[in-house]
Amino acid sequence: GPQPVPTVKSPSTLVGSTQMSNVTVCVRFRPLSHKERKTNGDKICFKRLDSESFVFKDEREEDVIFSFDRVFYEDAEQSDVYNFLAVPIVADAISGINGTIITYGQTGAGKTYSMEGPSILHCNNQKTGLVQRVVDELFQSLQSSESMATWNVKLSMVEIYLEKVRDLLDLSKDNLQIKESKTQGIYISGATEVSIMNSSDALECLSEGIANRAVGETQMNLASSRSHCLYIFSVQQGSTSDERVRGGKIILVDLAGSEKVEKTGAEGRVLDEAKTINKSLSVLGNVINALTAGKQNHVPYRDSKLTRILQDALGGNSRAALLCCCSPSASNAPESLSTIRFGTRTKLIKISPKSSPVETDSGKAASKSTSPEVDSVKKHI
Ligand code: ADP
Ligand code: MG
Question: Where is the signal peptide (predicted)?
Fold first, then answer.
């Protein structure tokens, strides 16, 4: 049957930014895995408070309340996640606003599950992931708009590994370049773009990309946890006549695992990988920080391929959502805390330098703020 109309709390517009730049930050704790239960018992690393906050021990083992736009616990459905963070983005893409949905977290935290579900091919309705839901919603909205005939939806899938962009819809293209044009904005030059007319076209294409990703991994002996996977949908209207082209794009990003390299005792290429992955994740953090600090700041988009591709989906006329995926197990608490901290930094709203001289990467700017929109509170209990 039809899904109930979701009540979506609209993300706060960032203070100090003259551009429209919205970042919704959510945390998701997956259920304990069988392995975690077996080796570590039922020890959980967080205490649930409500749908926006939980208690977590910080680096000094002190209880701290962390608050986000929404927290999804182990009983959350895929549809809850979708309704809260993706529905507004899909709606906006149709009216020409770019959107980005990013999953962040250590390997095994539930990033791919959130994006693809248990499997993109065999998804049932309840477990279907964000990607397929975005597609379904996109076509439903377009079909209900009168001008369906003039809409054009295209799908690309790429992977970024060691700062190389690989086409997942054509494995022979393994080093794509990122370019910028007046009409297209930022784009991946030469990337395969498949025109999709409906959900099943999209599913076929996505399955191919996912299968190709696995093939490439075997060939190159790498784990998917070490590369970023991007699902790129572009929606365009009016390419047939001389009317102005309107449209936006939605980029879904399943990031590489955020775990620290020391833990794995990596050497050689694995160490290079870990460094590169951590670098592009920290560049992503820097970009988000610069964006939240306002237009005056230099935004280091060009410091990584990932942020360059996301440039006009993160900044400018855009909307972004970050899903911070965490293991609930006490045994993974340090990595989960680091993921939560990344989310907090992303959510941290800084006052523009004009209205306040405070400029810091720590939480100080937030505590000086009087804006009711600062919702990333931290207090001891
Ligand atoms: P990641 O992509 O972050 O490395 P995965 O999405 O592959 O992690 O998740 C690791 C394991 O946990 C998978 O077996 C996945 O099916 C399972 N899992 C993750 N999130 C959930 C969830 N919300 N509900 C049930 N199982 C989940
Ligand atoms: Mg994964």
Answer: none
Contact 126, 348 (CB under 8 A): no
List own/partner pairs for 238-241 with CB under 8 A and 24 or more apart.
Answer: 238/150, 239/150, 239/152, 240/150
Which sign does the torsion angle of CA 50, 52, 57, 62 carry?
Answer: negative
d(CA 47, CA 350): 28
Which residue bears the tokens 């020890």?
43
DSSP code at position 302: G
Q: Which of 349, 327, 355 is nearest to 340 (CA)?
A: 327
Distance 331 CA to ligand 1 centre (A): 16
Ligand 1 proximal residues by C-beta, below 6 Å = 30-31, 33, 105, 107-113, 118, 225, 257, 325
CA of 360 to the centre of ligand 1 (A): 35
98-104 and 378-380 beta bridge pairing:
unpaired
Express each pLDDT in 43-70 by its tens digit.
999 999 999 999 999 999 999 999 999 9
For residue 82, the tally of other CB atoms under 10 A from its CB is: 24
Q: Considering every ligand atom, which ligand is closest to the CA of 111? A: 1
Size (the chain), residues: 381
ipTM, two decimals, is: 0.99
Query: What's the count of helices (H) and strands (E) in the chain, helices before strands?
Result: 10, 15
Radius of gyration from C-alpha coordinates of the chain: 20
Q: What pTM was estimated for this model as a whole?
A: 0.84
Eight-state DSSP code of residue 257: P
